[in-house]
Every structure is written in structure tokens, then in C-alpha cells.
Amino acid sequence: AQSVTQLGSHVSVSEGALVLLRCNYSSSVPPYLFWYVQYPNQGLQLLLKYTTGATLVKGINGFEAEFKKSETSFHLTKPSAHMSDAAEYFCAVRRNNAGGTSYGKLTFGQGTILTVHP
Amino acid sequence: DTEVTQTPKHLVMGMTNKKSLKCEQHMGHRAMYWYKQKAKKPPELMFVYSYEKLSINESVPSRFSPECPNSSLLNLHLHALQPEDSALYLCASSQIFVIPVPNSNQPQHFGDGTRLSIL
Questions:
Q1: Do residues B87 and B116 lie in contact, with contact meaning Cβ atoms separated by under 8 Å?
Q2: Which residues 36-95 of A are in CB contact (within 8 Å) with B?
Q3: Which among B7, B11, B43 is positioned nearest to B25, based on CA atoms?
Q4: Dmax over Cα atoms in chain A, in whole Å?
Q5: Among the listed residues B96, B7, B88, the one whose alpha carbon sits nearest the alpha carbon of residue B44
Q6: What are the phi and psi torsion angles at A60 (to 5°)?
Q7: Which of A88, A89, B81, B101 places its Cα 20 to 30 Å from the Cα of B40?
Q8: pLDDT digits (tens, 9 = 90+) for A14-67
Q9: From CA B86, how far away is CA B11, in angstroms rounded?
Q10: pLDDT score of B19 more than 70
């Protein structure tokens, strides 16, 4: 079964500091990995997705994620945190539906709440 | 602005009521999803429709009844719900490709959800 583990349910950083949110996955190859962000009282917004062959994936709002197959990790980083980055972040892996089609169940990690201090 | 529109944004209903949640997308996506999200928890899949047919039901109780009347619309009919069904209900949609196709890692696009409270 596919799963993701997010280390740290809460991460607190100062404005301007590095943001590092950790995600480890268990998945068949290739892993269909995503990072989503959820602001209060809103749905999920896609930050970035893993693309086969890439090791560093760039997303929106200055976020990027590094795919390390040997460590089964897909950690999310941002060089300099902004107050507007305060939200909950979910790592997710997709299990493709039978027949080799590109849709299916997303399994989410437990989420990491990012707090940014002035 | 989200490209997946859900209505209503908030819904309060009694346990004997019948109501429906609606979801609409105009991105040409042929896969549509319902997720349930309890407070401080990640979303959990309920149903998946592909080409307007139900393809995944994650053992959801029959008091939740999904319907996909056309490729742009997805409904969730509610009847005789329990207080523990209070949650944020999220709709999502995605493209369908046969793998392997370059860039076939198609993301799911989510609406802002309907916050449901059962009295």
C-alpha cells in the first residue's frame, strides 16, 4: 500500500528563515507525489508535483522539493519564509487506478502546520 | 480563484433532512472526486468518478449517495446523516491519460469545500 509520512506536525520559523517540511513516501515506481497547501477555511492548492526524471521540482510561491529515491523522500523547502506562508501543508501520493490511467486515490500525510513569526 | 466550484459553502442540517452538495468544473477533466476532511486531519477519499461512471467507492455508508449527471457536474446527496458526518467536504477533478505519457503526473484540482454541520 502507498503511504506518506510527514515528520513534524508543527514547524515554526522566523520570517526570512529557511522552511523545511519533511515527507517520506512508500510507493511503487514511479511515485506520483504532490505537495498541497491549505489556508484556513479553504480547499487545497497545488504547490508542486514530482515529474519523472527530475530531482529538484520548482513550484509556486518560491517553494521547491527535492526527490531522493535512495531516501524515499520528497522534502519541501523555501529559502526565505514569508508571513503569508503560514498554513497547513500536505504531502500526497497517488495510487493510479487499474488500467494504467493517470488518475486515482490520493493518500495524504497527516499534514504539517507552518507558523511564521515576525 | 479556484477552478472547481462547490456550493453551498456552508450547510447546517438535521439528521432527518435530505440535502445535496454540488461541484462544477469546466476544465474538461473526466475524473472527479469527493473527499471528506475532519478537523485537524488530512482529506480522505470517498468516491471517484471517471467518464461519469463510479469507479471507486471507499466503503462509504449509503447515507452518502454520489451522482455525476454530466462531465462537468458532481453531486453528493445526503440523507439521514449522523453528527460524526460533520466535516469539510472537498470536490476535486483531474485529467485522465493512459500512462506512460510525458507529464502524466496529473494533479487533482480542489474546490474550497462545503463545511457541513449535522445537528
A1: yes
A2: 36, 41-46, 49-52, 90, 94
A3: B7
A4: 50
A5: B88
A6: -85, 165
A7: B81
A8: 999 999 999 999 876 667 899 999 999 899 999 999 977 788 999 999 999 999
A9: 10
A10: yes
